[in-house]
Amino acid sequence: MFTTTTSLPSPVLVHTSPCVIQDNCSIDALGYSFFPSSTRQSRHDHRLSAAELPSYSEFEAMPPPQYSVKDEPVTLAMYLFKFGFLFPPFWIMGVFILFSPLRAPPVSAAAGEWLPEKTDAEKQMVIDGMRRAETKWARRCLVALLALVLASLVVGLATWAVLRH
Questions:
Q1: 15-48 CB burial, b ≥16 within 10 A, e <16
Q2: What is the pLDDT of residue 26?
Q3: Staple partner for 77: which of 14, 101, 121, 137, CB 3.0–4.6 Å?
Q4: C-alpha–C-alpha distance, residues 114 and 116, integer Å
Q5: CB atoms within 10 A of CB 141
Q6: pLDDT (tens digit, 9 = 90+) per residue, 61-72?
Q7: Helix/strand/coil (H, E, C) string of the chain?
Q8: Is the pLDDT of residue 76 over 50?
Q9: Is the pTM of this model over 0.90?
């Protein structure tokens, strides 16, 4: 009565385009891979064997690098500059250091002599080094104060010009 015949379905037409989504979900046409691909070679894909690692024996012969010590004394002007960002009048006080002389402290019988182990020439070198550090930080206070005044003038003039019209 009923006869059934099985026929094979017609072959499927496969369309290939330059933008093919591969098994690992990377889109080649865009040049971007959303997930790591094992088909692309990277220098991080393979591990180095012990034979390929560099020898450290050539580095052991080299001495460690020398680091120079900045022997700048801690000064009042340095603190005035740094804290001037919190309270700008400190910069004004830092500028006054440019006009003050730096002298050795007076000799007091109770406190002993200032740097008793040093000669007068060495004491003068210490004072000169401190004076250089003080003037460096005092000049920074001056520059910061001038920048603050200039920025305030620009903002004030701009505000005045906008509100005038």
A1: eeeeeeeeeeebeeeeeeeeeebeeeeeeeeeee
A2: 47
A3: 137
A4: 6
A5: 25
A6: 777 777 777 778
A7: CCCCCCCCCCCCCCCCCCCCECCCCEECCCCEECCCCCCCCCCCCCCCCCCCCCCCHHHHCCCCCCCCCCCCCCCHHHHHHHHCCCCCHHHHHHHHHHHCCCCCCCCECCCECCCCCCCHHHHHHHHHHHHHHHHHHHHHHHHHHHHHHHHHHHHHHHHHHHHHC
A8: yes
A9: no
- Residue-wise pLDDT for 108-158, tens only, equals 544 567 788 888 888 888 888 999 999 999 999 999 999 999 999 999 999
pLDDT confidence band for 9 (50 / 70 / 90): low
Q: Which residues pair with 32 in a beta bridge?
A: 27
Q: Hey, what amino acid is at 105? A: P
